[in-house]
Design a protein that fits this description.
Radius of gyration of chain A: 17 Å
Number of strands of chain B: 25
CATH superfamily of the largest domain in chain B: P-loop containing nucleotide triphosphate hydrolases
Shape of chain B: globular
Number of helices of chain A: 4
Largest interface: A-B, 55 and 55 residues
Order of helices and strands of chain A: HEEEEHHEHEEEEEEEEEEE
CATH architecture of the largest domain in chain B: 3-Layer(aba) Sandwich
CATH class of the largest domain in chain B: Alpha Beta
Strand order of the largest sheet of chain B: 3-4-2-5-6-1-7
Strand content of chain B: 5-15%
Distance between the termini of chain A: 19 Å
Radius of gyration of chain B: 29 Å
Largest sheet of chain A: 9 strands, mixed
Oligomer: heterodimer
Largest sheet of chain B: 7 strands, parallel
Helix content of chain B: 40-55%
Chain lengths: ~250, ~850
């Protein structure tokens, strides 16, 4: 999957917001929705919290993307992993979940988790202390993680929901998936704004990419066709410090 | 005007070998004095700069030293040892190299000289390029990128060792760009392979010839040696004075805007009266609109064509060929036709919109009547009232021979990084030797050793403080202290990424049919004609059904499929016109000063049309006209807003930066600013509080507001959020080799990897704000998009010269910019407000 095009994810704001939260500011701006009868909270930092089971879901961390490119001669900044983990740490602080589910493409390539520098590895270990951690395998990292806390699996059924990396083409009922990096564009008065988003029609939910270098794919792209009941589909866009919910029909593509 | 054009004596002409003397005699021509002077001095070993107006025989002059030397040498017998190229000709345009080949081949053929001449551009087939390396021509015509490619090759020394002359055409235009920086580094390397080669620069008139004279020779001689003299100068002045007029029309001259549609009937009449007319405009959008409007009144079906950089290359070549064959009556063109290409019999140049710079105007006017002794004929068509003054100022400037070309400037760091990698691809380099070589190029003469080391480190591993990429290094230091490439794939990557021109991401535009059936299904057909390319950011603003002007047609946007933009014929004359931010070039400093001078001096208004004069007179009664070095600030209420207009005359880019910084300051002062708009001439800011009253009561001090310290912390704070730096960063990232160039057509194979440079920028800024690539970006932006140098000069100039007029309503001088409000938006602000509104709709829907 290739994610091209202009991004307007206001990453700086997300990084800044993560710092405020780590500093102990009150959590605001999240949006409560219901997926397959289960209450879910879309957080503007890009995580989904399920209060009934105390589960935090994040997707497409793409850790070590910079290193993956460097292996091929493009020396992207080696700071993407620490930046992503800082945001993750802020969401974990906010919800203190019992379970963390990372929904696949946890690392940008197969070598990522094996070559992860020790200081970053210990960051993850610290975050996972006292909770269950589930690594769902993605297409970028199908072999699972190396030397990290938690369990690796292709799919997880839990609390009335199914968690997998790629959305199923057969049935989407109760599915929380990632892989597609949904983003959405809103236009008013000749000005368009494009942001990553949660996308849900009430039956299934597609997670925004959490990794800071992950990028996005428009919700109207062909790859998204057939996944949702468009009449009921709502995009929950990550704003500066809150979620903005916009009906599919009001988006532009 | 004096013409320094003496004809040569017989003794000078004796410098020429027999076939040349015979050829001149048969043609009934005399070699010109400057041609012989250049020949004599160049032959005796001097590096030379020839400055001459169009039509002075510059090309022949540039090649005479080489042609005569080759004639004396004679053809190299087959079976001789390998001989590298003798002469390298470098031009900024592919088309120019092709054109010169034509113009040079003719005399060479007529004189019966046995000299091989070939060109080499990005379009040259691989087989021919390979053959050129094995069996080089005597004279190679090429571009700066090809020179870099040849130098990054292991065979470079063999290829260049016999080089005698490097001829650099249109040098004035080359040196101010990143391509010029790349070329200066290439020249430094060529000099190492061929220490005795001589440079010959050909240039139009420039403001500071010494810049170019230095550029042509090595700088920073090693200790103990005398630095060489700058290149010698042959300056041909004069030529017939051009016949320039400003278009007068029956219609009213518009208050604002950039398109001169009001004058199109008059332009059409001029086309009818002349053989071939070249119509220059400043932007692609103006070209499109003008072309379309001309055709709506083209009752005589005159062959009128369109030429701009976004059109399909095939279509452009067709227009160029038709032009050369004198088959066209008019061509509407943007800067793609700016440079000295020799076309057919152009007898009129029409310049629509203000020229923005006196030198640019002179260059474009040079396009008509390509013979120095006949006057060029040109008509200027101002698009609005300020432009009338600007045209008049440019016209005065042209008669004065004033020049306002930009300075050569400091060499860009991203270009340096590219070059360092290229040099490692050629052969392992010793860092001290390479540093000496690089600082011999004038744009890099002041490069510090420390910065050079940072660049080498950047090329090797990205140059990050966090050193985690050592094992992936692209170049490595070996035991003998030299740097070599880690593996052959690095050289391959270098070749694919080479060059300094980064196109905005563009999509191909394909015309498809909209069938009734397709419409019903909401789909469209495929496989129609390709029309050219448009920038992705423009398409992002469109929704299906929107209409826009492109390739001379009104098109309906149907959607984006894979990497193509699908459009259909709109069958409409009324496109939804995209809001472009005016002219592409900002007003030059020189012309701005002229316009301010004209504004302040009613004695100079005589040349202006009545409408414009009346406008200025009313302004003088209602408000005032500022003195040449004074900054006039007007404030007035309108609607529910309070406006502040600053008449700075420093060009759109500097005004935009000023607008961003002033709104921050006004915000802090409690003026509650809402937005601003900038033109080439002035800046308008509006807000909820009465700015005029604040100034009068002393709550707002104008000297403080316009203090130079805004270029400190306010600037830094703004840069944090500026989208403009992201655009600049993207270019630096591509040129420096941090990320791979996107190669059109290869996206589908999946071998191209894309990653958003905006995201990389944010991550890098928040973790290593002092990284060398961010420094390169800030330097670029300061001289480019932000125009900080100019803003700084202005703030210094107006210190203590600010005059405030608090008015009860809009002044005549403010009308043009007031009309711009709403056409352009303030970028980078109020994004979340847009989201809020869209969200509110959902709430209303849910409640209703």
């Amino acid at each position: 999957m290739r994610y091209a095009g202009l991004e307007d994810v206001e990453l700086m704001h997300r990084l800044a917001l993560a710092r405020t939260i780590s500093g102990g500011m009150a959590a605001t701006g999240a949006e409560e929705i219901v997926v397959n009868g289960v209450l879910a909270i879309c957080d503007p930092l890009g995580g989904l919290y399920l209060p009934e089971t105390g589960t935090l879901v994040v997707s497409d961390l793409h850790l070590e993307k910079g290193a993956a490119f460097a292996r091929r001669g493009m020396m992207l900044p080696p700071y993407d992993t620490i930046a992503t983990l800082n945001i993750l740490s802020a969401v974990i602080t906010r919800y203190d979940p019992k379970v963390v589910v990372s929904l696949g493409d946890n690392f940008h390539d197969r070598k990522g988790s094996e070559h992860l520098p020790a200081d970053l590895r210990s960051l993850i270990t610290a975050m996972a202390r006292g909770r269950d951690w589930i690594w769902i395998n993605g297409n970028h990292d199908p072999d699972g993680t190396v030397d990290l806390p938690g369990t690796c699996t292709d799919e997880l059924f839990y609390g009335g929901l199914v968690f997998r990396h790629e959305p199923s083409l057969i049935s989407g009922k109760g599915e929380i998936a990632g892989h597609l990096h949904p983003s959405a564009t809103v236009r008013r008065r000749e000005k368009s704004v494009r942001r990553p988003c949660f996308a849900s029609d009430g039956a299934r939910l597609l997670m925004p990419a959490f990794g800071v270098l992950a990028g996005g794919l428009d919700l109207r792209h062909r790859a998204m066709h057939g996944l949702f009941d468009r009449e009921a589909l709502v995009a929950h866009l990550l704003g500066r410090d809150r979620i903005y919910s916009v009906r599919y029909g009001n988006l532009i593509g | 005007m004096d013409i320094v054009e003496t004809h040569s004596s017989g003794r000078d002409a004796a410098l020429l070998p027999r076939p040349f003397q015979k050829w001149f005699a048969e043609k009934g021509w005399q070699p010109r004095a400057h041609q012989l002077e250049l020949l004599a001095r160049s032959t005796s070993g001097e590096n030379m700069l020839l400055i001459a107006p169009t039509g002075a025989g510059k090309t022949l002059a540039g090649f005479l030293p080489s042609l005569t030397d080759l004639t004396r040498r004679g053809k190299i017998p087959p079976g001789s040892a390998f001989t590298g190229i003798h002469t390298l000709y470098i031009s900024p345009l592919k088309a120019l190299a092709v054109d010169i080949e034509r113009n040079l081949m003719k005399p060479v053929f007529e004189m019966g000289l046995e000299i091989s001449i070939e060109n080499r551009t990005g379009d040259t087939p691989q087989a021919k390029r390979q053959r050129q390396k094995l069996n080089p021509p005597d004279i190679l015509l090429t571009t700066p990128e090809q020179v870099a490619l040849l130098l990054a090759n292991k065979e470079a020394e063999r290829f260049f060792k016999d080089l005698k002359y490097v001829v650099l055409d249109e040098l004035h235009s080359l040196v101010t760009s990143k391509r010029g920086h790349l070329l200066s580094l290439g020249l430094a390397r060529i000099r190492r392979h061929a220490p005795h080669m001589r440079t010959i620069g050909l240039s139009a008139t420039v403001s500071d010839p010494m810049d170019l004279q230095r550029w042509l020779v090595p700088q920073n001689a090693p200790e103990g040696e005398n630095p060489g003299p700058p290149a010698g100068l042959v300056h041909v002045t004069g030529g017939a004075a051009p016949d320039i007029t400003i278009m007068r029309t029956e219609d009213r001259i518009p208050w604002s805007g950039h398109v001169s549609t009001y004058a199109i009937p008059e332009v059409y009449e001029e086309i009818k009266r002349h053989k071939t007319t070249l119509i220059f405009v400043n932007t692609r959008f103006q070209a499109e609109l003008l072309f379309q409007t001309l055709w709506t009144i083209n009752e005589d079906n005159l062959p009128i064509a369109l030429h701009h950089g976004s059109l399909d290359a095939g279509q452009r070549r067709k227009v160029e060929a038709a032009m050369a064959a004198n088959k066209l009556r008019a061509v509407v063109a943007t800067s793609t036709l700016d440079l000295g290409m020799d076309w057919g019999d152009v007898d009129l140049v029409v310049h629509v919109g203000a020229p923005k710079g006196a030198s640019r105007l002179a260059q474009r006017i040079g396009r008509s009547n390509h013979r120095m002794d006949e006057p060029s004929k040109a008509i200027l068509v101002p698009a609005n009232r300020f432009e009338v003054m600007e045209c008049q100022a440019a016209l005065d400037a042209n008669y004065l021979g004033a020049q306002d070309t930009p300075p050569v400037g400091e060499g860009a760091l991203d270009v340096l990084a590219q070059h360092v990698l290229g040099m490692a691809c050629a052969e392992p380099f010793d860092p001290v030797a390479l540093y000496d070589e690089i600082t011999s190029a004038s744009p890099y003469a002041d490069l510090s050793w420390e910065m050079f080391e940072r660049i080498v480190d950047f090329v090797a591993t990205g140059g990050y403080a966090l050193r985690s990429y050592e094992r992936y290094a692209k170049i490595r230091k070996t035991n003998d202290g030299r740097w070599r490439v880690s593996n052959p794939a690095v050289a391959q990557q270098y070749r694919l990424n080479l060059g300094t021109i980064v196109e905005a991401t563009e999509l191909n535009v394909r015309l498809v049919k909209r069938t009734a059936q397709g419409l019903a299904k909401g789909t469209v057909g495929r496989g129609g004609m390709s029309l050219g390319k448009v920038e992705e950011y423009f398409l992002e603003q469109l929704v299906q059904g929107d209409t826009f002007l492109f390739a001379g047609k009104v098109l309906r946007f149907e959607g984006i499929r894979e990497n193509e933009c699908l459009v259909s014929n709109a069958f409409s004359l009324d496109p939804k016109i995209p809001a472009y931010a005016g002219g592409k070039f900002p007003l030059s400093t020189y012309l701005a000063d002229q316009v301010r001078g004209m504004l302040a001096d009613p004695d100079r208004w005589g040349a202006l049309p009545d409408q414009v004069r009346d406008w200025l007179n009313i302004q003088r009664e209602r408000s005032m006209l500022p003195a040449r070095d004074e900054l006039l600030i007007e404030t007035f209420p309108r609607g529910k807003r309070f406006f502040m207009i600053a008449y700075c005359f420093e060009g759109r880019l500097a005004h935009q930066t000023l607008g961003m910084l002033l709104t921050r300051r006004l915000e802090r002062a409690g003026a509650r600013p809402l937005g601003f708009v900038a033109t080439d001439y002035s800046l308008a800011i509006w807000g909820l509080n009465d700015i005029g009253a604040m100034i009068k009561s002393g709550r707002l001090n104008l000297s403080d507001l316009f203090d130079e310290d805004m270029l400190g912390d306010d600037l830094e704070a703004w840069l944090d959020e500026s989208y403009m730096l992201k655009r600049t960063f993207r270019n630096c990232a591509v040129i420096s080799g941090l990320i791979e160039r996107r190669h059109p057509g290869k996206e589908k194979t999946g071998r191209q990897v894309t990653v958003s440079t905006d995201l990389i920028y944010d991550v890098l800024r928040s973790h290593e704000p002092d990284h060398v690539l961010l420094e390169a970006t800030r330097r670029d932006a300061a001289s480019g998009l932000l125009d900080l140098a100019r803003l700084g000069d202005m703030l210094a100039r107006i210190r203590g010269h600010i005059t405030h007029r608090d008015l009860d309503r809009v002044s005549p001088l403010a009308v043009p910019i007031m009309l711009e409000i709403g056409k352009e938006s303030v970028p980078g602000e109020a994004h979340d407000a847009v989201l809020q509104e869209a969200a509110d709709e959902l709430i209303a829907e849910a409640l209703g």
